Amino acid sequence: MERWIERQKNILDFTLSSLFRRKWKNAALALVYVFLVFLLASVIFFTHALKQEAGIILQNAPEMIVQRSIAGRQAPIPLSYIDKLKDITGVSAVKKRLWGYYYDPTAGANYTVMAPEDVQLDPRSIIIGEGVSRTRQVFKGSTMRFRAYDGKIIAFEVKSIMPSESELVSSDLVLMSEDGFRRLFDASGEYATDLTLQVKNPRELSVIASKVVHALPDTRPILRDELLRTYESVFDWRSGMALFLVSGAILAFLILAWDKASGMSHEEKREIGILKGIGWETSEVVLMKFWEGMVVSLSAFLAGIILAYIHVFFTSAAFFEPALKGWAVLYPRFKLTPFIDASQVATLLFLTVVPYTLATVIPSWRAATVDPDSVMRM
Amino acid sequence: MRKSHAFLLYLALSGLCFCGLLAHGLFKKQADVEHLEAKCRLARTLQLTDMCLFTEASYTRHLSQADLHTAFQDYPMSLDHFPSGAIVPPPEIVRRTNGKVD
Question: Is the pLDDT of residue B102 over 50?
Fold first, then answer.
């Protein structure tokens, strides 16, 4: 065993010396490699953490939301629908939701305005998200003015600011009383934005959804499972956001691996020819090239994955911010909880180290099986 | 120092550093339980349906509430106006409804 280890170390010594002979080329390659691993790992860590967090939080979303559609567009739903929904067997509670959007021309930002049933608020006061406070520079006790539907200015006092830890769900929220909401948007007291349903047996949700459509044909039910699946597909690393962020990196890596696999340089072939000429066996040449692939890919993998962790969980994925921010003026600042499991690390290892090592070994095996004399004469 | 030893030392240190970060992740996860529960409570009390990720357009702010028309706000072949609209797929309900007519 000791002899085997010593042999590996000797070959590794030789491999490292060989890599150092072309140090600038290899350093550039390693740098690009680290960057690719960093990008891939950042996307996988970021999207997985968001997916996990969304999954946990949205488990607390309403079991079913019923919206009314008129001419294909969402429209206010009459409160008289509440009784019709309560009559459906299996429905245990129906609540109304009052919410909408407010474009603030001062900040150029969109807010989500809500009038929650379970939060008691004075008609003149509001609770705002941390993002609203940051964007508008309003704090607890400040007055915030909104332009109502008729152009009149309504002033609200900021009662409190939602905690910054909840920015991922509350950054752009403005909570106000029902009176305040109806005054601001001229929303009739006979309508709500949509309705939420609670059912006795969650396994009957799809049956109840079809009963809702049957009883109220102008409505569309949205199930909690659909919310969860929507966010799962947004954060799935093979689609949506991740694919957008990572496609460039994957293409760059493919070009790198393809370039490596498609052939060796004249110098590398000569080196193999000389090694064969002085008595190295094909297996030793392949082993040397295997170590070469491992040195570059494993070093880059470890450096890239460490940098990616720091990037996603310490700097809140600052590198992705411009892509995610788009044209939004109000952007939530959130620190993600690390959700890392072995499958993510294994996926990264499989996507980066394995193809590169194979791409290094296969052409060298081809070169090592050719007659050394002809390789050296090339 | 032999080159192989230096390389193995680098691997060991990097591996150790990565394990340290994984341990940080585990501790952070436990420390964040309270924050996560607060977010869950908020979602339950306010009956929230979506995460606040993209605030630039209504259909990316409330991804799950988008309807069949949101993808083509202006006309049937129009490209998405907002950058975030290009990186999020349509919601489940739109895909389910479209499945019947595709």
Answer: no
pLDDT tens track for A97-141: 999 999 998 888 999 999 998 888 999 999 999 999 999 999 999
Q: Which of residues 297-326 of A touch B (CB under 8 A)?
A: 298-299, 302-303, 305-306, 309-310, 313, 323-324, 326
> Is the Cβ pair B43, A61 closer than 8 Å?
yes
Residues A266 and A369 occupy one common structural domain: yes
Would you call B49 and A245 a contact, using CB atoms and an 8 Å cutoff? no
Which chain B residues have a beta carbon less than 8 Å from that of A12? 3-4, 7
Contacts of B68 (CB under 8 A, 6+ apart): A72, B94, B97, B98
pLDDT tens digits along B57-90: 888 888 888 776 666 666 666 667 777 777 777 7
**Domain extents for chain B?**
3-46, 58-101
Burial class (CB in 10 A: 0-12, 13-18, 19+), A69: middle
Tens-place pLDDT, residues A169-189? 999 999 999 999 999 999 888
Shortest CA distance to A47 belongs to which of A232, A219, A202, A222? A232
A47 and A125 share a domain? no
> Which B residues, 83 through 102, put their C-beta within 8 Å of a C-beta on chain A?
83-84, 86-89, 91-93, 96
In a domain, A202, yes or no: no
Residues of A in contact with B52 (CB under 8 A): 112, 129, 131, 167-173, 332
Whether residue B86 and residue A244 make contact (CB cut-off 8 A), yes or no, is yes
**Residue A137 belongs to a domain:** yes
Q: DSSP secondary structure string, A232-256? A: HHHH-TTSHHHHHHHHHHHHHHHHH
**Together in a domain, A298 and A363:** yes
A52 and A105 both lie in a single domain: no
Instruction: Answer yes or no: is A218 within a domain.
Output: no
Domain that holds residue A179: 99-186
* pLDDT-based confidence at residue A218 (cuts at 50, 70, 90): very high
What ipTM goes with this model?
Answer: 0.84
**B64 inside 8 A of chain A by CB:** yes
pLDDT tens for A347-361 read 888 888 888 888 878
Residue with tokens 């979303």: A61
Q: What is the CATH number of the domain that holds A137?
A: 2.40.40.20
Chain B residues close to A7, C-beta within 8 Å: none
Q: Are A225 and A40 in contact (CB under 8 A)?
A: no
Q: How far is CA B35 from CA A53, A64, A236, B28, in A?
A: 11, 25, 24, 11
Residues A247 and A362 both lie in one domain: yes
Rounded CA separation A300/A28 (Å): 11
